[in-house]
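Justification of computing resources. Each target in the renewal requires a structure prediction run like the one illustrated here; the chain below, 488 residues long, is used simply to show the kind of job we budget for.
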Amino acid sequence: MTNIPNVKLGIISVSRDCFPIELSSARRTAVAGAYGDIYECKTTVENENDMLKAVEDVKAAGVNALVVFLGNFGPETSETLIAQYFCGPVMYVAAAEDAADKLMGGRGDAYCGMLNCSYNLGLRNLKAFIPEYPVGTPDEIAKMIKEFIPVARAIIGVKNLKILSYGPRPQDFMACNAPIKQLFNLGVEIQENSELDLLVAFNKHKDDPRIPGVVADMEKELGDGNKMAGILPKLAQFEITLLDLAEQNKGSREYVAFANKCWPAFQTEFGFVPCYVNSRMATKGIPVSCEVDIYGVLSEYIGTCVSGVPVTLLDINNSVPADMFSSDIKGKFDYTLSDTFMGFHCGNTPMCHLNKGTLKHQLIMHRLLEPDSEPDITRGTLEGDIKPGEITFYRIQGTAEGGLTAYIAHGEVLPVATKSFGGIGVFAIKEMGRFYRHVLIQDRYPHHGAVAFGHVGKSIFDVFRYLGVSKISYNQPACLPYPSENPF
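Resulting structure tokens:
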């Protein structure tokens, strides 16, 4: 995927001038050796002049994510100014003491120094990534650095992202119509456009010489699932249109995502359903949300950066029928009926996450737009059951009141046939019923949730925290009631 950042790490050590500078420098070298692929700044920071020199050094080396290492107590002013002058994601960690026989002449007191470091970051309103337990040996810190990479990748991506939206939010989908002020607070740019702008751009790509090549690639990807080959040239034309719009409208930004209106006028004017193209764009690292869901596509992009694989956006759609639960789930998996639900969208989930993806028509739109004829303008969905495996269900959301909230839950897609249409799966999340009522409903989240494939909630939580999300909810265990939960 070319639409997410490459992280180049650097490490700067700091030293309080009443401690041996050699202690911090030697410990830094040990950390760099334990991790491996990291640029080691040789300037150990004791004061502001050192800080300026060190920051310029890592910038010149192309570093875009930084580890600040307290090899000893550290100079709280200079070490926190690094985060201010570096202008990229910064992690602060501290050295554990080496051995009992070094506690007289070689004690670093970095455990103490992290407290003052945190206080000074707060004084200066600076954001930083601090691991759950930020003190360790070189090998332990190397593991912390590894966990920092997906967080840093997402932060860099968000700060360099432009969302291109086409069309207003559809009627009766006001839940997706969230205030955009928080996007700017996060550092995200948004360029809002008309559906007509998208249609004009699409029409200009008629007979584009690249269309046959994209059609051939689609045919290869679909294989036996290519049930509606006649629609592929239009879908290819639309894919090329989106890719060109991304390049033409990046402006000062490096990365792009789309939030597009996809029905009902889309079908009558463009002549197809865009779902399959949206799935392919997600595979390229350029997510396209349905129904102009700007915070949905921001969620997708964050998950793409964190996981490094394509994500999807699904409706938290329908309950699992009791008879299906009894026959296919009960006694086979450790879930109750209310732990399960079905996640669905028309056909935007990438082929790599489906058991057998097939190009079809959108059943609901067909009922509405061409009920008395064979599918034509409603063709273009990629349908199939979602592959079983671990997932993270999550979303960042601008609230109606202008705030910023988020939720995260780990779960799985069960190996249960859905017996339904669309890109769909039977999902299971522990205590989903309570989570649904006291987070999703209570906090007024829309019906769309982003799905990352794998358990990556720890990193997503750290990204949300770094971005300053005021409330991050999760599926609390039964022993931990929600504030709104009726205790009786």
